[in-house]
Design goal:
This protein is 39% helix and 24% strand. By secondary structure, the protein is α+β, with helices and mostly antiparallel strands. The chain starts with a helix and ends with a strand.
């Protein structure tokens, strides 16, 4: 953990496996920046967050993140949750920007497969509530029996598999059809990665 903290820009002292004063101070500083309980304890959740932050820095968005998180002034840098939001934030205004952001789903899917269960749960937790702007292909639609809303299933990576799910009101659903390419904006409600299937449920969706 000391080596990992040092790689993230903290000063835990020598990597001797001893939870000394410098290490505790580094742990507390990281917990504070990450929005975790500040108790100086090295937990599985803390380790997962630190691993996640290190991995995020190797993702394709690294150059963009460097503009937000300079290599100096670590004390003022954003938390891992804020970093994730910066990495995922869509750029508005052009068709190219929308398509660039749509490809982010594939990057997220590949990244999800590389995580342990604990790491994935940590990552998924702070993805919830983030706004996404994506483009995909409608593969199926179903009217929900408990309401008149329509559940829309979208293929994000041209595999024919349902990757993203969201509900739309009947008035919006009647304009959709299977095979249609749509651009939609919504908030992440749930993220799962089961048996190799990476799927996201959105809420509060608007179709562009």
């Amino acid at each position: 953990m000391q080596e990992l903290l040092a790689e993230l820009g903290y000063d835990p002292g020598p990597a001797d496996g001893i939870l000394g004063e410098r290490t505790v101070a580094a742990v507390k500083a990281y917990q504070r920046n990450a929005g975790l309980t500040v108790d100086g304890q090295i937990t599985e959740l803390l380790f997962a967050y630190a691993i996640e932050e290190k991995a995020m820095r190797t993702m394709p968005e690294r150059e963009a993140l460097e503009k937000v998180i300079p290599s100096s002034g670590r004390e003022a840098r954003e938390s891992p949750a804020d970093q994730a939001e910066a990495a995922l934030a869509p750029k508005q205004g052009t068709y190219e920007d929308v398509n660039r952001y749509a490809s982010r789903y594939e990057e997220m899917e590949r990244y999800a497969q590389s995580l342990t269960e604990v790491q994935f749960d940590s990552w998924a937790a702070y993805l919830k509530g983030r706004t996404v702007l994506w483009t995909g292909i409608v593969v199926d639609m179903e009217t929900k029996w408990i309401s008149d809303d329509m559940e829309v299933m979208v293929d994000m990576d041209n595999t024919g598999v349902q990757d993203v799910y969201f509900d739309v009101p009947p008035g919006m659903g009647r304009y959709l059809h299977k095979g249609q390419t749509i651009t939609f904006k919504g908030r992440i409600k749930n993220v799962i990665n089961t048996l190799g299937l990476f799927q996201i449920t959105l809420e509060h969706v608007d179709i562009e």
